[in-house]
Amino acid sequence: MTLLDVRNLSVTYAGGAEAVRGVDLRLDAGQKLGVAGESGCGKSTLALALLRLLPAGTRITGEVLLDGEDVLAMKWGRLRAVRWAGASIVFQGAMHSLNAVHRVGDQIAEPILLHHRATPAGARTRTGELLEQVGLPAARADAYPHELSGGQRQRVMIAMALACDPRLIIADEPTTALDVMIQAQILRLVQRLVAGQDLALIMISHDLAVLADTCDRLAVMYAGRVVEEGPARQVHEDARHPYGQALSAAFPKIGDPASRFAPRGLAGDPPDPSALPPGCTFHPRCPVALDICATDDQALRPAGTGRSAACVHTTGPAPLEKARPGTS
Ligand SMILES: Nc1ncnc2c1ncn2[C@@H]1O[C@H](COP(=O)(O)OP(=O)(O)OP(=O)(O)O)[C@@H](O)[C@H]1O
């Protein structure tokens, strides 16, 4: 059953940055979707748009249907109910997301009190259970954020995200700020919490290998657009879009120790979303670009069973839009 249906979602920041452009995504109940892409490709903007957490003045268009209800069209009161209880977000860098002057237990209890109309004693019991679920002693509820390590704080953030029994968790680079050993622990925790449950997950990372290990499906974003989508392992091991191929070559393949020593980086950076190049936005960096790529962008189209890509090499020419006049 479809839990999340994102249709033609676009986000433009007040300054004119087109951070997300025409994204379509579908997620079934309990399904795990990875969203990959370099820094600046619009992954966090996409996550924030799903719960309308973007700064005032940002233009969001399209539809975000959560259980059939459009988050983008909801009244404020309904939106508040959907945040935490329908879907919740675990951000990167827990220190900035937690309030430094409140005990972590009180911060976990807050959404429980708000959404479940629990008594303070009931909320405290539930907080203890949640802390134990994420591998912390219940007594850590009395700690302030600065008394916890980075990994412990991220566990608290995950406990908060679980507090109201959401059907969807969005994890935005949940391990980025942590050292490698702790990263692995937190990833295992997320995998354990979502495995075999009806809890859907959108996990955002620049690391395809991590996503392939955790998720069922994978969407690769470039310059605000999904350029490739499909079963996670297949996209990681045999990407169809040249950007997906470059991204996956930059990280070791699961179970392939040789690839660990031969990462191939991609020259250059993603384009400035306020001044996107005409045609396919990847063409200036693409090793296999054709003349047509400088003028015509390609729509995401079928590229094998259950897979899609937006590349003239994979799917043949079918322009999404002509280059804007004066831009080529
Ligand atoms: N509040 C904002 N105002 C204007 N532009 C913004 C704002 N937030 C992000 N951007 C721009 O939108 C683009 C997409 O940023 P976003 O953070 O979504 O990318 P990302 O793929 O999540 O990158 P990272 O992995 O570094 O978080 C970037 O060019 C960024 O500079």
UniProtKB/TrEMBL annotation:
Start and end residues of each ABC transporter domain: 4-248
Provide this UniProt record's keywords sorted from A to Z: ATP-binding, Cell membrane, Membrane, Nucleotide-binding, Transport
Query: Could you tell me where this protein is found in the cell?
Result: Cell membrane
Q: Entry's SMART domains?
A: AAA (SM00382)
**Primary localization class, coarse:** membrane
**Region entry Disordered, spans:** 306-328
**Membrane topology listed for this record:** Peripheral membrane protein
PROSITE patterns recorded = ABC_TRANSPORTER_1, ABC_TRANSPORTER_2
Give the family per the record. Answer: Belongs to the ABC transporter superfamily.
Instruction: Report the NCBIfam families cross-referenced here.
Output: oligo_HPY (TIGR01727)
Protein name per its UniProtKB record: Oligopeptide/dipeptide ABC transporter, ATPase subunit
- Organism, by scientific name, is Streptomyces graminofaciens
